[in-house]
Protein 1
Amino acid sequence: MENVSVNTTQTSLWLQCRRLLTATGPGLLMAAAAIGASHLVASTRAGAEFGWQLAWVILLVNLLKYPFFAAGARYTAATGESLLHGYQRQGRGYLLLFSLLNALAAVASTAGVAMLTAALLTQFIPLPIDLLALIVLVASLLLLVLGHYRVLDRVTKVIMLCLTVTTLSAAALAFNAEPILAPGFVSPSPWQWAHVGFLVAMMGWMPAPIEVSCWNSLWLLEKQKQQRVTPKQALFDFNLGFITTAILAVVFLSLGAMVMHGSGVHFSPSGAKFAEQLIQLYSQVLGEGSRYLIALVALLCIFSTTVTVVDGYSRTLILSVQLLRKDEVSERGLNLTMLAVSLLGLGIILFFKGALLPLLQFVMTLAFMTTIIFAWLNYRLMTSDNLAPGDRYGVAMRLLSWIGMTYLLGFAALFVYWKFVG
């Protein structure tokens, strides 16, 4: 009888784990959107330039932004509607404010991730980066138009697993490598006035722009069309994706710190050169023979980010417009929105003429300056009467939210002073 009881318990635990895993998708899609420029570029560059000094900042930023990202999964799981519907319930002006800022972020972010994808693609195809960016955007549109959420959900899980295994392996090998610091080398401090711009840019997309919480909300609704997702499953999926992004951000920083810091090598602003340096970072510890495999994994990772960015921003944009106009969401409208976002993003890429790091710094800084408004909108919604008392944020989440908004507002004010006065 005891064996029967043990087997029953094991079966029950297995079924619970299986249900949680089959419900995953929106949270991992959010992670795929996050593990792009903020990790491959900002985290790695932070480690390369300042060693381990900014590791605690990355973890703190993730913690302080957590309540605003969690709003997407928690609100939708509790109400069965998206964050955008929640903004509209607060008042038409709140949805309009979100829509205007979201449109600006959509074009800039699409340009940033598409150029980074094109930069990595130069490792395989010797074409101008602008032309490769066009190819990337066309491929993204085709994937989304033909497959939409179902394909995106399946492909992302495989790519995320490959990237995670590769990056963790590289970091583990780098720990055993000989130190490259020259005798007498002193790490520069990131807490200097000249580095305020870099700090703000790094935190702007760490782990991702806060409006990504709306994508998570819409992706959860799409997932619920395929199967039932309970609030517990939705929160597990979100937490799994969010914690993964935070851990990998520190892992990417460790690669920069252990392989490039103190070597005298700095990342080039040129997109193609930057991609070459990034792949070299991995191949130094995994071996030159792994160069193209690493390049392929990194390319697939950032390509999945591009696809999720185009899909996520377009979904929120078309739904915002149709809620404001009281129309129904149409497949044709979504496709046209994705096309418009891609074309405008391509225009920004052409303007920056292959200068990847300046473009990404511009996009990340823009994200940070608008973050406080997106954070406030989500906090207001998660403490409003639209939610049942048991679904609203409690004392701990309210306190963390206020600390987070104070930090965001304080750094935004510091950046404005640094940029225009100091």
Protein 2
Amino acid sequence: MLHFAPYSVLSILALTTCFLLVCVFEFVNGFHDTANAVATVIYTHSLKPRVAVIWSGLMNFIGVLAGGISVAYGLVELLPADVLSPPNGDPAVPMLIALFGTALAWNLFTWWFGIPNSSSHCVIGALIGVAIGDAFLHTRGLGNSVDWSQIWKVLRALAISPILGLIGAGGLYFILKHLVKDPELYQPPQGEKPPHGWVRGLLILTCTGVSFSHGSNDGQKSIGLIMLTIIGILPATFALSPNAGSHIPQIAPQAVIAAPLLQKYDHDGLRDEALASVERLQATDPTKVVASQLRADIYEVLAGLKSVASNAEASAAEKKSAKDISGALRPTVEYAPWWVRLLSALCLGLGTMIGYKRIVHTLGEKIGNTHLTPAQGASAELVGAGLIATAGYTGLPVSTTHIITAGIAGTMLGSGSGINPKMLTKIALAWIFTLPITITIAATLFYVISM
């Protein structure tokens, strides 16, 4: 499958299949994660379920369109350069099927059992699995095929953000309880009666914030996956930015500056490949650019420069130079057309409008020993929205599910009611097993399909 000719019938069929997979994944991401935003307004009867999910879906839609692409490419760069951009333009069908199939299957499995689980974890595990499968396929050491520095950076964000959610939401609830004495804030919902004015407004506001920030962060993940699909299968059209023409004349001069840095510091044993790419970039003729080869060479050099920037032996000036060169090269290959953003926004927004009931029930009644109160829901969502929005604009993928779930647990602890150990054990086990399971499945799928 690695040798389908671009634009052949088989390539078009593969593109269609992978497009459907990424759209379905983002749709499932919407209804899997939507409960994090709508749980409090539905559970407290602040909004009717249909109104809540439509409003949340709209905010997710706007969040995707308003977000950047730093998270999108922060994720896809977990892949090694030869998988991320095949140098001969061959379609990356095994990579795409392994990635989407694995993440989608695990997402649906956890949703079916009503377990809040992270779509980000699913995608990241599948990406790591593809990188490991590629290492085995080419009999390379894992250090030469997996960008561990980028993986640790992403995993640190995933690990730290729920802790911040737990502490932040618990602390905010504690402060709120001591400053605001309205008893309605601290009582579980009674019948179908909605909270009174300002309490209801607060819950709608926090729902809006989480929905928008979820779109701005998670929407970027699907943007990255869609770009992987269209670039891997139709490289001649999509390998380079539509505005690449203005950047191409700067590539050769930047390659000249990069050469001594790459020569001095070994790039995980792949220095020869990076230097060969530098030589080709130095000879770049703007009138004779082969898009797929240029993209592949740029990513080889970017990988080497990233290694220099993180090398303890490199001087501050060398690290700055490596980052500056990377910044000059990236606009040529890192972009997202307006229609990709729109497609991502539509899939996420539409998915948000269904499938929420299972996980709303879990968040509202099963995390703590008592039912969720308006103050607890608002505290968890206010802190969650802030953390997710911050991560979205700093290029770090975080898990909306992890942050909100941890935040609700923090408010339960802050209220003194305690948490439900049985449900928290289920959630923790899903968190623990997501990475090893998705890594194993994706690595196996990629290796088998690529043979």
